[in-house]
Amino acid sequence: MTASFADEEFTSMQMKGVEPVEIKVDVEAAAKRLSRAVQFPTISNQDRSDFDVKAFEGYHQFLVEAYPNVHKTLKREKLGKPRPYSLLYTWEGKDPSLPPVVFMAHQDVVPIAEESRDQWKQEPFSGAIADGYIWGRGVLDDKNQIHAILEAAEMKIKEGFQPNRTIYFVFGHDEEVGGPEGVKHIVDVLEGRGINEIAFVIDESAPLIPGVFPGIKENSALIGIAQKGYMSLQLSVNGEGGHSSQPPEHSNIGILAAAITKLENTQFPYKINRAVRYQYRFMGPELPKEKQPMYEAVAFGNDSKTTELEKKFIDEMAAQQVTRAMLHTTIAVTMFNAGIKDNVLPPSATAVVNFRIAPGDSKEGVIAHVKQAIDDDRVQIKDISASTPPTNIADPYGSGYKMLEKTIRQTWGNDLIVSPFFVIGGSDSKHFQARPFAPNVYTITGIQLESMEEFGGFHGVNERILVDEYGRSIAFFYQLMNNLEELK
To answer: Which residues does the UniProt record annotate as the domain Peptidase M20 dimerisation (predicted)?
Structure first.
């Protein structure tokens, strides 16, 4: 970031005076279609051999029946390698010289933990409409976004609308396990077809939620502008097993446990990346006034040196789990396997460590860090993931961001804070955002939630969304399609 204190005042970046737009949506009929969609258990299991072909094929057929105008007007392709269950829709624009845009969401959902089933107020795959909500696994993550996009497109086509620039709808089938079969393949296909510039991409991320970010009580719409990279390493120790009555000085489990301990004790250093600087340039002026000098220092800071105020910021961020993860590459030990019997020494022990790679770090750098931290040749290290690098950082000053903020305010009003933010998780859009031809990828789940408690349904129990808010989500995508003409 090149701005300095002399270049720019640390004032509010919020768009002012946007007129609301009223769009009539038949939300009752739309809710019934989303309810039906939830009833297809399109689960992504970690074991990829456990794949419900019938669920995906049934869901695809349902989409054809539910959105006849979309399927008459847009070209639909089933893509993916080796399994072709991701969907690419092409809505041809009037001006083929204009770079296209991409609307994204994913079909797959996470499994239901068996021990949690009795905690659900409605059956997880019932799609129940009750108490003003649509319930079920995937209704928030992320079929609501697929269907809001398709509902909006169906409405627009009925009105005779054709976009100026081509619009792609990209609905992956394996986002919950990283998207290596689906969207990664679609990006390769588009690149192979000669697409060398994509003007704008929107995908899922945080919904609109009051109090979603520390220090902000107001309703917030956070627009993701960058994502961390992703990699999982398997650490393994292989040696002689034997009888537990004759243990060696160091067992395979003991060697691996020591390696894990050394790695966890050698965390990656904290540093402020450009996406975080952008975030606090927009968010900082809306945070408590007494801390604004610190946020100003972050927003206008220089990566080559860290000021005292920036050091204070790092200390405050490091004290909280969510914000800490924004400042460095994280290390998470997620699996540990060894042994089959209490009196048998296992001949091998393995662990899986997941890394979310911050901007400025690389996959190669992470592996080097792990080797140096463990410093034990008995521990073998192998990349077992469909790893991706940290993404490009989208421009929060560009026409795509401004168009998105305007659409948010047209839909949900001006009484909310809109800010770019650095996404510590990830979505399928990372496969676009890591490529040079799609520099401006923005992520937000276009639906209003009542509270952080409701957000707990995301991968948790009692996943649900308000029927009326789903209507506004459809209106949001409808208006976004109108506003695409403002892209430069």
So the answer is: 225-377
Query: Do 229-269+328-383 and 27-226+391-486 fall under one CATH topology?
Result: no
Give the pLDDT confidence of 369-408 residue by residue, as tens digits: 999 999 999 999 999 987 888 999 999 999 999 999 999 9
Question: How far, in Å, are 187, 263, 333 from residue 192 at the CA level?
Answer: 8, 40, 37
**What are the pLDDT digits (tens) for 297-325?**
999 999 889 999 999 999 999 998 878 99
- Span 229-269+328-383: which CATH code? 3.30.70.360
Query: What is the spatial distance between Cα 185 and Cα 357, in angstroms, rounded to a whole number?
Result: 22
The CATH class for the domain spanning 27-226+391-486 reads alpha beta
462 exposure class (CB count in 10 Å sphere: 0-12, 13-18, 19+): middle
pLDDT above 60 for 4: no
Mean pLDDT confidence for 164-193:
96
Residues acting as catalytic residues: 108, 175
Q: Write down the pTM of the prediction.
A: 0.93
Give residue limits of the domains in the chain.
Answer: 27-226+391-486, 229-269+328-383, 274-327
pLDDT in tens, 8-64: 899 999 999 999 999 999 999 999 999 999 999 999 998 899 999 999 999 999 999
**How far is CA 201 from each of CA 60, 93, 194, 391, 463, rounded to the nearest angstrom?**
23, 16, 17, 13, 26
CA quadruple 222, 227, 228, 232: dihedral, nearest 10: 110
In this predicted structure, the answer to whether residue 2 has a pLDDT above a threshold of 60 is no
